[in-house]
Specification:
By secondary structure, the protein is of the alpha/beta class. Helix content is 13%, strand content 28%. The chain has 7 helices and 20 strands. The strands form 4 sheets. A 12-stranded mixed β-sheet has the order 1-2-3-5-7-11-13-14-16-18-19-20, with helices on one face. Strands 4-6-9-10 form a 4-stranded mixed β-sheet, with no helix packed on it. Strands 8-12 form a two-stranded parallel sheet. β9 and β10 (137-138) form a beta hairpin. It is elongated, with a radius of gyration of 23 Å. It starts with a helix and ends with a helix.
Amino acid sequence: MNINHSLTNRLFLMANLLVTIFVYQSDAIYDCSKISQYCICDESDSSIYCRRFTDFNQLDFSSGFKVSELFLAPSNKLALNERLNLNGIEPNGSLQFIFGKLASIDFKANPFKDFKRSDSLTLEIYQSNFQFTYDGKDLDDDDVCEMLLNDPSQEWAMPLFDELLILNSNPTPKPVCPVMFRNANISRLFLRNFDTNSQIIFRNTSVDLSCKISTLSIGRNYEILNRTVLNGNIFKGLADLDVSGLNLEEIVDDAFDDLVSLRSIKLAPDNMLEFIQSSDNKWLANLNSRITIDPANVTDINSTFINENRFDILFDFSKENYLFPDEDFCRFKLFPHEHLVNPNVYISHNITYLCTCTLGYLYRYNKNFN
């Protein structure tokens, strides 16, 4: 998914609203002449774009629209609540809901209740406050959060969505009550490009939320990775982690210890070279520590065991001229080959490839692991 390209396209289409409203008719989107005055239809990709409304009840989709993307951005920040009625919206194969300028999200209101998990839904929230409320109170209030966590019947619409993107937004400064993720099964979660010095941190809880998030992509403002950021209750089912688009400062030694299902990490910060050369990289030693093998002798290890338990880590140096010089050997001396961790390296196309002792050490057992 190209987030920047997608956002550029949306902004271009939004600009057209300032001068005119386009009306199309097609098999995918029905009679666009019946759509709200605040919206336009885009026949090319079966999308509806609505902006400059001041209340969600100004939008009327009841005449029926089959779409792949519904973009809603009010003139000023609004609470996402029962005033939004999505009756008449049907997925066109899949459906991405894109909300801009949300002031808050009402936990008790579920405008998505008529959709199904099989509808292949994506929820994107951008330039918004990622803050839930319950009966007018902040969901992150200790008493409110505990009440909802301890009531298994309390869940929001999250189980309906396959993907969730929270972009360019302003999270609550308090740890987020994780109850909105109860029974969620999200294939990809994007937490990227937040306002300065803000990030989503989830509150710790002993309550089993039956939550699974398969892939997590994090960027700016997650410069320090630790067990607070990588909350084991929310991310215990996490298989793949993408760290990119940020200047990484530190990975705490036990940062990944609670991620019992983690099988791959893509490490691609903008300052990859600086990060590697300024750290002792002790965090490497803890990767996939539940597995211990003799990496030099894998002839007796079943290939199925390798495929099911191998851990892949990608070091992306494609933006920098770096070739693992011999003087950096100690930076990688703790690389855990004995934990069945398989290294992969991206290097810049602008430099000539050389096999150094450092690189040779990293790759010494790759043929046994593949």
